[in-house]
Amino acid sequence: xxxxxxxxxxxxxxxxxxxxxxxxxxxxxxxxxxxxxxxxxxxxxxxxxxxxxxxxxxxxxxxxxxxxxxxxxxxxxxxxxxxxxxxxxxxxxxxxxxxxxxxxxxxxxxxxxxxxxxxxxxxxxxxxxxxxx
Length: 133
What we know:
Shape: globular
Helix content: 25-40%
Number of helices: 6
Number of strands: 6
Number of domains: 1
Distance between the termini: 39 Å
Largest sheet: 4 strands, antiparallel
């Protein structure tokens, strides 16, 4: 993974309900991690397989590293991320609000929704997403 710039940043963009640090990746970083051209990353964003937001301070699109997992043939987007993003968007949430909800601690789940998706808890995450908004 040489050449990938890792940015450990305080969660300045979404301070409410989120503590600690996380790694944010730029779109070129994501392309390198996934082993695809940058144009493919932009397509994944358009099709809602991934979600990126502009972080305060630099205005550059970033997404959290936690949206990616190790798949059978390398790094990939969490397979259940797209459906969850679509449920939240259909409920009227903006991309910033979806990001905040995905990364924030959720008392009903006992962890952040993205962590729950990473551990295979799609059903509970989607149920809460559908009934919360």
